[in-house]
Amino acid sequence: MHGSRSRFLTIMISLGMAFFYIPMILLVIYSFNYSKLVPVWGGWSTRWYKVLFESADVWNAVSLSLKIAFVNATFATILGTLSALAMVRFGRFKGRTLFGGMLVAPLVMPEIITGLSLLVLFISMQQLFGWPSERGFTTITIAHITFSLAYVAVTVQARLTGMGEDLEEAAADLGAKPFKVLTAITLPRLTPALASGWLLAFTLSLDDLVIASFVTGPGANTLPILIFSRIRLGLRPDINALATMIILTVAVCVALAALIMYRQHKRDLLDQQMAKRGDS
Amino acid sequence: MTSVPDNMPNDKQVSIGKRLSRMAQSNWRAIIVFIPYVWLLLFFLLPFFIVAKISLAELQISSPPFSDMIEWTDSGIMTIRLVFDNYLYIISDNLYFDTYVNSLKISVTSTILCLLFGYPIAYGIVRSGPTVKPLLLFAIILPFWTSFLLRVYAWMGLLSDQGTINNLLIRLGIIDDPIRMLYTEFAVYVGIVYTYMPFMILPLYANMEKLDISLNEAAADLGSRPTNTFFKVTLPLTIPGIIAGSLLVFIPATGEYVIPDLLGGGNVQMIGRVLYNEFARNTDWPVAASVAIVLLFLLVLPIIVFQYYQGKASERS
Fold first, then answer.
1. Taking Cα atoms as reference points, which of B164, B239, B240, B245 lies closest to residue B198?
2. Mutate which of B1, B21, B27, B29 to test chain A, going by most A C-beta atoms within 10 A?
3. How many domains does chain A have?
4. Which of A245, A260, B131, B259 has the greatest count of CB atoms below 10 A from its CB?
């Protein structure tokens, strides 16, 4: 199905891309607007970036969000990988259907329900055991791990089914114990999926507003909570500046990741060519 | 690797270490399943039961603000109180009923809109050349990595009374006074379609990518026109992708809170917003919990269908 695109499809793609990207481009342009009223153009200026960098609230929120995202991504990758191994490599076990259901449900569950239910859980736990004594970093991180691990599990499951069991079987035939096979063969081969799972969990955590709003306590504002409380009342030029900074950061990270993947791809091609030459 | 170093301090430690490692060797599979299983039972499944319990309680002025389900009378008899008043209240109150209907209307319509625009985009990407295809796919995935909240915010700037669209239309002389777009149902539709479109396109793309072009060629050889071939061959084969994409848009859109709040203002009632307000502003937890349980019941069937297709897809690949 290559290169046989009709004019209708080309038009739809162009419209789609315009629809996706024009709002973001305008968001960036208006961040350089001098005027306090966002849509009224008052000439180019970087004054809102200065306002942004001098705001302690913003920096506190950024630092809290990054901390949560980092811890969340690490735990979600571990738990998600364990879940994926159980689902793909362990055959049938007791309670597999329930486990599979609990792994897929967070992907589609409305955030508002997840948020509400986790909050009532934390409050019940606090009454019964006195823990968590206050809501904030810990409760948000636990909530994020719970839905992030499902995304990691899907990513790792896809890779596990895709790479087959040939090498594992070969290692077992050569006398490797199952645990050794797991640590020496399966996990190293999963590295790319683990990396993308970690990144996905990191981003999901940085992006979450609704669940964090439910399970946070007084004083613990993540970046989305801070942004939301400001834009509820209307457009704000400093939020445009913040949005631009976020878009810029994402763009740089994505470009770096693409570069690394491209280099890896080229090295793989080179290896394959060398291997071919070696054969002949 | 398995040999024990001979300079171990004493025999007892060695045996404990050995026993532990033997336990890990034989039970590691159980441990691997156990950890995430317990996590999900505790932090995903159990909370729903607590919400269900609260939905059957009464509002009380206490902390937390609801009555206990189990009470002990003076004579030591346990009584269980289930209060169905919250559900009766939701069903009899027009506000809630209308809000559920309105949420479903908005999410169904948005899903159809996403399908109508997303389908040709996904099909176009599949049909693109090998150099353009990964770039287009990348362009669809990229918004995922930027903030959802800021993508909604971008539309506030476009749709407001003095926003970019109104400015442009006035300058072009098409209208004299700004059209009210922000804080209307129209804005909510735009917001949902904008933010959820990739969830429609990606499953469709994954499904279409596997289609066999020779089927289309065979149909053409037998004299079928392209439109006819599309409706008789391509469309039926992409139904799994359509179902997966539609559910990925429909289910979260029904409970959406941020978009109706930011783009709909107070003018668009959706159940996610009502739930949040009931909970945060009125602090009526029993009613909020009942609203959540009813929403879950509305979505349970689509969620099961989605799980079924997800399971089938992972078995096939």
1. B245
2. B29
3. 1
4. B259
